[in-house]
Inverse folding.
């Protein structure tokens, strides 16, 4: 579990470095697919990871957005700050993860008024898969820009 | 571990269904990013998963390609056949997975002549992340085609 979060954080930071070499207009440009842009994708990844971790800690409703909207974080430097701002809480939760937490759960009312149950083990894997999926989208946009994407390889990262 | 493989197999099958409604020219069309096309991506996912599983079983070198090249499997029906053909071996390995296998390893000589060590736990997570990453690329191409992509959500799949 921890190694896959570590993987995502490494890859995310490599994408931040990749962004350094891309004009800011391209980072903000509206694109087809996913949430529609490079910086928006990074924002969305940070948002979703943080929100689920908070919800497992019983702190904020998952659907509650950041107090500041995307537009307030819409530069590369601010996005890195946002990632760092929430990282400590996320890392504390992930590093404290214990298999005993697998079966803990939260409940949530969906749009149809039904109560849904999400186990912590399910949420953690959802968060992992969520980031990897969106990073795959960045890799297509990278090639559209004529740039080599960050490697998605999980091997050769010193994680094991 | 098992749940993330199950997730990938569910999503893969949903992409096969998605492909049913797409003209075959679009499935074969060369695209920017990833391995360059929709069916090619599915082939690559199947290839990589199967090859690593075989290598952990000591059966074939990972780099050995399928005996038949992509062109021999380049229809939706054949690609589904290919996925099914190799699935039993993959599923047997995954379902027999035991945390004790985490530290088992294989060695491989890389292009520089250096010996690399890959632990089974590392390989398994690499295979999981590999498929999710490439599926993210399919989702962009889906939107380019004006079609809704298969959901990447891991929650609400009855996996937990």
């Amino acid at each position: 579990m921890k190694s896959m979060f570590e993987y995502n954080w490494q890859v995310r930071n490599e994408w931040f470095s990749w962004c350094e070499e891309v004009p800011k207009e391209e980072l903000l440009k509206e694109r087809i697919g996913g949430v529609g842009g490079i910086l928006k994708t990074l924002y969305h990844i940070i948002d979703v990871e943080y929100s689920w971790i908070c919800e497992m800690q019983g702190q904020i409703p998952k659907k509650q957005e950041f107090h500041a909207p995307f537009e307030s974080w819409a530069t590369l430097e601010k996005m890195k700050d946002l990632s760092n701002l929430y990282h400590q809480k996320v890392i504390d939760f992930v590093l404290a993860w214990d298999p005993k937490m697998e079966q803990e759960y939260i409940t949530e009312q969906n749009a149809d008024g039904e109560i849904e149950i999400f186990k912590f083990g399910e949420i953690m894997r959802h968060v992992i898969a969520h980031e990897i999926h969106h990073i795959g989208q960045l890799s297509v946009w990278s090639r559209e820009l004529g740039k080599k994407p960050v490697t998605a390889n999980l091997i050769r990262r010193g994680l094991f």
Observations:
- The longest strand of chain A covers residues 105-109.
- Chain A touches chain B at residues 3-4, 7, 32-34, 116, 118-119, 121-123, 125-126, 128-130, 132-137, 139-144, 149, 152-156, 159-160 (CB under 8 Å).
- The mean pLDDT of chain A is 94.
- The helical segments of chain A are 2-20, 24-28, 38-56, 76-95, 120-144.
